[in-house]
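Hello, quick one for you while I still have it in my head. Could you read through the record and tell me how the tokens relate to the sequence? No rush at all, and the record is pasted right below.
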Amino acid sequence: MEELHLLESWEIEDRDWQETPVAVKRLLVRSWKELEEFRQRIEQLEAENQWLKEKVNNSSRNSHKPPSSDQAKPPKSQEKPKRGKKRGGQPGHRGHSRPLYPVEECERVTDHYPQTCGGCGEELTGVDPNPYRHQVVEIPPIQLHIEEHRLHQLACPHCGEKTRAVLPEEVETSGYGERVVAIVSVLSGMYRHSHRMVVSALSDLFGVNMSLGTVNRLRTEASEAVSGPVDEAKAYVQSAPIVGADETGFRQGNADGQNLHSKRAWLWVAVTQGVSFFCVLLSRSTAAAQSLLGENFSGILNSDRYNAYNWVDVGQRQLCWAHLKREFTKISAAELRSSVVRLGTQSARSGVSRQLGRDLLAQQKKLFRLWHRVRDGTLTRTQFQTLVSELRQRVTDLLEQGAHYPIGAKEKTPVAKTVRTCRQLLKVESALWLFVTVEGLEPTNNAAERAIRPAVLWRRTSFGSQSQAGSIFVARMLTVVTSLRSQNRNVLTFMTEAIRAARQGSSPPSLLPQENSSTASSMPHCKTYLLDKAKADFRLSEFEISHSFEALSNNA
């Protein structure tokens, strides 16, 4: 068998082989075997070298890695030529100053009048109808409000039993008022302070002495106080017409025995206009995504291509174009081999050109230029749909070009990865373009990524949580803070009201937008789209390119 492979590889004729001495045959067979071993080793090393190069070159610009994981700084952009101007605002620049407080909030208003003219010294009289206003803001020393309740113990003159008085129901047994609990929750949950930092801040700012154990106990009380509003926010997000979702790794310890196998936790976020919902789960699976969005989710999901979201119908998905840009960048920067040598037979194959990735990036840039014009009002949505139809066809052609390149079943070269990426994108091609026809839907998932950024900072500074209760506190406070900030509502006021309501047994405040908010009435085309998905394909004849848009298309 070895002799047969040798004859085929080196193209030795049978007659010549029969005339070859036996010793020479043995030497040739042994040399051929060694050569084949060397070739296989070279192929293995080349594959490893290619994998290492690809791993080293991966960054936040061409993969899903976060910017904080980049080992090398990105190359500096070319410095712009200096224009000879000084730093700061230029002449004619509209100034920005701090906003003034209403006059009603001022403790004292003092008017100052010039006595004499600055030019000639003449005495001045009169009133300026529009004087320049200068305000001085000061925080007075904080005086704690402390109430002492003395519980006396008296002995019965009849039997001698000693009885101590009990606190009235309206007196808080924890020893701290709702505003103190709210401040602890805000310092810990909004500003990501550690327990020791919370103790230090309370002592330095307010003169309140507190132990580490009390901080944890008050955090738990605050977490339970907002459980109802957070559940309401969860139901609101799961029923929203458009939801953005994302997830990031999180650490959860086993201090309470709820993570016996030390599984890695994941912090999930679902974002809609005005409300965000967070949860920490010990899984990154499809079941976890269904727990986040609801198993009966019927809205439109804006996310990346992570397979945990694949249970959502492709007609209800919008893939993030920021992630697609990274995919195209990776394709355009890949080092592709032009030939492969196997078993002594050199089989040349033309690699997938970097031009494929560059062409896809060019289409992405053109798409975003058009989208920015839609957002600034210089391009109508109908015009946008018409112009994008040609662009969509071009992207599809490029993906099909990459998908039809032949590769091996287990091939792991950059060529194979490019081909598989193109094939996967073609399967969900309609999910690339849903934002074109659905108003209120963005082409990127930046809203969810921005919402999850504070959670990443929390994880980096606190190393996660030590228990399930700690993870629940993190998720609930992130839900409260992110939702209220998007609605321009005060977090401390909300937490104070929620804790007061929990102590009094009344209804807590809501995290949902107020009735006058535009959230409930926004995105009117979403439900229409879900009822009639066929209209979402903007390549139908009703959107045929008209002559009136030809000039606009050429300019784009």
Notes: The beta strands are 153-155, 162-164, 242-250, 265-272, 275-281, 300-303, 317-319, 339-342, 345-348.
